Structure formats: C-alpha cells, structure tokens
Amino acid sequence: MIAFTSSLVFLLFNFVTITCYIVEPGPLVVATKGEVWPKPQEQTTEDKFYIVRPQIFKFKVLSESCDILTNALDRYINIIVNQILPKTRVKLQEDVLKPWKTNKNFVGYLDALDIILLEPCKHGELPDASMTEQYVLNITSDTVNVLSAQSVWGILRGLETFSQLLYPTADEALHINCTSIFDYPRYQHRGVLVDTSRHYIPVSKLLKTLDALSYNKLNVFHWHITDDQSFPYISKTYPELSQQGAYLPTYVYTQQDVAQIINYAAARGIRVIAEFDTPGHTRSWGQAFPELLSPCYRNNVSTGQYGPMDPTKNFTYEFMENLLTEIVDVFPDNFLHLGADEVEFECWQSNPEITAFMQTHNISSYVELESYYIQKIIDMSDKLKATSIVWEEVFTNGVQLPNRTIVHVWKGGWELTMNAVTNSGFQTLLSSCWYLDHLSGGGDWTKYYDCEPTKFKGSDEQKKLVIGGEACMWAEVVNEYNIESRMWPRASAAAEKLWSVKDADTSSQAGHRLEEHTCRMNKRGIGAQPPNGSGFCEL
Ligand SMILES: *[C@@H]1O[C@H](CO)[C@@H](O)[C@H](O)[C@H]1NC(C)=O
Ligand SMILES: *[C@@H]1O[C@H](CO)[C@@H](O)[C@H](O)[C@H]1NC(C)=O
Ligand SMILES: *[C@@H]1O[C@H](CO)[C@@H](O)[C@H](O)[C@H]1NC(C)=O
Ligand SMILES: *[C@@H]1O[C@H](CO)[C@@H](O)[C@H](O)[C@H]1NC(C)=O
Ligand SMILES: *[C@@H]1O[C@H](CO)[C@@H](O)[C@H](O)[C@H]1NC(C)=O
Ligand SMILES: *[C@@H]1O[C@H](CO)[C@@H](O)[C@H](O)[C@H]1NC(C)=O
Ligand SMILES: *[C@@H]1O[C@H](CO)[C@@H](O)[C@H](O)[C@H]1NC(C)=O
Known about the structure:
Keywords: Disulfide bond, Glycoprotein, Glycosidase, Hydrolase, Signal. It catalyses: Hydrolysis of terminal non-reducing N-acetyl-D-hexosamine residues in N-acetyl-beta-D-hexosaminides. InterPro entries: Beta_hexosaminidase_sua/sub, GH, Glyco_hydro_20_cat, Hex-like_dom2, HEX_eukaryotic_N. One of its GO terms (biological process) is carbohydrate metabolic process. Its EC number is 3.2.1.52. This protein is of the alpha/beta class. Helices cover 35% and strands 20% of the residues. It contains 18 helices and 18 strands. Strands 1, 2, 3, 4, 5, 6, 7 and 8 form an 8-stranded mixed β-sheet that branches. An 8-stranded parallel barrel has the order 9-10-11-14-15-16-17-18, surrounded by 4 helices. It has a two-stranded antiparallel ribbon with strand order 12-13. β15, α12 and β16 form a beta-alpha-beta unit. α2 runs parallel beside α4 and α8 packs across α11. The radius of gyration is 27 Å and the shape is elongated. One 2-acetamido-2-deoxy-beta-D-glucopyranose (NAG) binds next to loops.
C-alpha cells in the first residue's frame, strides 16, 4: 500500500513536471514579416515581391506638396534606411547576399513610389475631428506603384503602412511583397491619454510618445496636464499656478514646449486635446489660489484642508473663464476636455457657507451643486466655441448637458453606461477597458485586444454615437523611465481595435503581427516591452 501510494505520487509528480517543463527552443510567438499593425481594412497580398534598395529609393510626389508632406517623406526615408540589417552580421554570409535574384517570385527593384495627393495640403495645417485618413497603396507587378489619398493625413497613414511592409532580406536590401491596400479608420477618435501631473514627463519623452502614436496610426494625444499633485503648465494669465503648484521650478511646460508638442503632433496627423480637470482633482491649483477651493470643516471649525473647487464663489467662475479663454487659444483643437470626474462631496457637506449658499439658491443635493458648477463651465466652453468632453460622472449624475457634449466612459460596467449615454443621444468615447496602468501577468495586451467598443445593448443608431476611444496612461507609478515600456505595445492593442474593421483578427493570430510590430518600434527607438513572452528581435 505504501509502495503503491508513493509510486502514484511519483507518477503525478512526473506528470506535472513534464507538462510544465517541456519548452521548445526559439520564441514563444513567431513574428510575421512585413505585416501591418493596425491591420488594414482591405488588403490582398501576393507572393511576388520587389527589392527596395534604400540608398536609391525615392518618393516621387506627382501632385502639389507642402511642408507636412515633405517633412513626412524625409522621416520615412530615414525609417526605411534604418530598417536594413547591420553590415557586420551579413558580411559573414557573402554568398547569400542577393538570394532573390534566382527566386521565381522576384519582380524587380522598387526604386520609387509615386505619391498622389488629391486635395492640396496647406502649410501649417492642423488635423481636426473631421480629418480624412483614407488611402490607397498599390504595389503591383503590372501597373504603377502608388500611394494615393484625398488628404495629407491619408498620405501619412499610407507612408506608415508602406514602411511596415518592408522587411530586411540581406545587407542593404529590403523585401516588399506585391500588395493592394485600401485603408481607412473604423473610428475617428483614436487616442492615448498621458497624465503629466502625478509624475512630470519631460518634453522629449512626450515627443517620443507622439512618434509611437504615429507608428500605431493613433490620432489624438489627450494631455491630462494637471491634477491634485502638480500643476506643470505655465499659464500666461495665471503664472502663479505653476510657480507654486509644480513639483519643481524645472518640472514645467512652457508656452514654447506646448507649441512644440502641438506642432510635432500636427506634423504626424495627431490632435492635441488638453484636459484641465475641475472641480475635483484641483488641489495643486490651491497652492497659489486657495480661494478657488472649498475649505473643509469639522464641527463648524475649519480644518485647514481643502476639497474641490468652491462652486459658490464668483471668483471661481471669473478665474475659470479667464483660464479657459487662454486654453482654447493655446490649444487650437476644437475639443476641450473639462474632466469633472470623482468629485468628493464630504468637504462641501462640512462647509457651512456652502450649506447656506445651497439654501438661498434652492439647491437640495450635492449632485445638484456639482451640476450648477459644471453647467457654468460647459457654458463657458460653448461660448468659446469648443466642443466639451466630460468624464462619465457628469452624465450619470444627471447634469443637464448641451447637445454637443461628448461623454467619456471610464468606469467598470461600461456596457450599461454606453447604452445609457447613447440612448440619450450623446456621442461617447470609451476608455474603461484600456487602462494601461492596470497590470496583469504575462503578455497582458490580449485583455485590451479582446475589448469590443460596440459590445453593449443598443440600436445601430446608438452604436454610431461611439466616436472612438482612448488608452489611458495614468502616471501614479509611471515616470520618464517606464512610460515607454508600459504604454507599448499594450496601447497598440487599443490602436488596432480602433482602426481596423470589427473582428479584424483574433488575439492569437494578431500576436504574431504584434511580435513584429514591437520589434519595429524597438528598431525605431521606442522602448516597447516584449508583448507576449520569450523571443528576440533582429536589431
Ligand atoms: C510574401 O511573399 C513570400 C514569397 O515570396 C511568401 O512566403 C510570404 O508569405 C508573403 N508574405 C505575405 C505577408 O503574404
Ligand atoms: C489600386 O489597385 C486597385 C485594385 O487592383 C485598383 O482598383 C485601384 O484603381 C488602384 N488604385 C490606384 C490609385 O492605383
Ligand atoms: C454648525 O452650525 C450650524 C448653524 O449654526 C448648526 O445648525 C449645526 O448644528 C452646527 N453643526 C455642528 C456639527 O456643530
Ligand atoms: C456674484 O455674481 C452674481 C451674478 O453675476 C451677482 O448677482 C452677485 O452680486 C455676485 N456676488 C459677489 C459677492 O460679487
Ligand atoms: C425649489 O426647488 C424645488 C424643486 O427642486 C421646487 O419645487 C421649489 O418650488 C423651489 N423653490 C423655490 C423657492 O424656488
Ligand atoms: C441636438 O439638437 C439637434 C438639433 O437641434 C436635434 O436634432 C438632436 O436631437 C439633439 N440631440 C440631443 C441629444 O438632444
Ligand atoms: C502569447 O500569445 C498567444 C497567442 O499569440 C496566446 O495564446 C498566449 O496566451 C500568450 N501568452 C501570454 C503569456 O500572454
């Protein structure tokens, strides 16, 4: 009996170790070669291929050009040149230097790509909510090789695709299969939120983030620029805000920094949408302007602590009007994010002056008081001709919202919220399933990939009110040293869900493309982490 038990234990133990320890050599997920992320809407690919020699290759613009286009062509020539393999490695295999010459699928050398822009672009043009990003890219063995688009933004997306189709074959040469692509985004608004208040993120890292956005065809940089912890934006109207509210005098964004970020983004077809979150999340504003905030009380005695903005004071509204007037001028995008999430009522409740104000104004609840504030701020934004975005609480608390307001859904149970928001006729953005600060083990990009923004109860009309979504990089435990690896390639999963057709791919298939895409980002200097597991990049 004892012998029997021990042999059973031995067998079980062996079984467990065998299933755990059998591992094949090589990468867990094998990378594709020359496949595109996010997946194009329509693509046919052949086995026939061209060889591109980066030293010779040129873009030929057959239409009017502008600085956005010429700068983009320079950037992509650089990217293409950097894609060739390091000489040292290939020198070892001189005999296989031009293996394509005898391949039956070899069509020839692709020395130029024609660029046709149908609508001329203008110097200094900015992308906006109505930008067109559609393009056609034909690499064929019988006709001309051409990238064509209505707008310069479409050309930018097409250039990104073209650069992704190339893959190294041998020293100084790249391979591109014949392919025909017709591509456009599923959603107009495809963003990433970056929080620069919980940790200050230097401008150089924000510019790199914008590079990464363009490699993923994302088109909105949502700049959550201030919060409770710090106020790094140097306001022209109220410079005291950052003088006293920034972590350090150097941890700030000057007007030149902001302009640089907006221009750098625009050159890549990316909109910059600023968020100045109020009336909660404003503790840092009170360093310079304590009178903006509500003093908290205990037993009718002030505790010296502060809560959300004081919605009962005229000063608050005069201040906000002046600041927002500056903001819509500094940030030219039509959209303005007004925040308004997580307003805590305890401090308002404790404050006798606020209680008295509510009585004289016949305001019977704190939600109503919040509405009173938000209504005034949205009216200001409306008067300044901005389209307001607010976090979902504003809607769920029942604030009366102007028709054009966009409701940004971020909490759990988003399916019910999206249904309610769209049922009331409002446009909506989804972020709930794309919180990049929520970490899980292994390659946790699949949880983002498996989120389908229309998977909620509602009519087709309701689904049309979903204008897109944003992956959110909250920065409590993120600074300049880990922002790249935490965002990428995890935000790439959201990028594909927002660009590609519904059910474009399964996460297990997409994994192979993401493996290649991650190496591609690494090669371009983005410190993306491995998406899935063991493997390597040819760098
Ligand atoms: C490209 O063509 C080669 C053969 O030349 C083929 O093996 C490969 O699968 C093709 N790639 C794609 C993405 O179709
Ligand atoms: C690209 O190829 C498709 C399919 O072969 C064709 O219908 C289309 O006219 C081509 N477009 C351009 C701009 O060459
Ligand atoms: C605070 O003062 C108000 C008005 O004077 C009074 O009604 C209330 O009971 C006081 N609350 C406490 C906790 O002392
Ligand atoms: C605040 O503004 C309102 C309306 O504009 C005005 O009636 C009121 O007198 C002002 N209060 C103060 C203290 O200035
Ligand atoms: C106060 O508001 C309630 C409903 O919110 C309303 O029934 C009542 O008439 C209002 N009173 C005054 C004096 O406006
Ligand atoms: C917004 O206003 C337009 C025109 O006045 C109207 O057709 C539409 O139903 C309104 N939408 C909402 C959500 O109220
Ligand atoms: C790696 O990717 C494959 C599919 O590409 C997936 O099935 C597997 O669960 C992933 N592994 C981890 C650790 O995420």
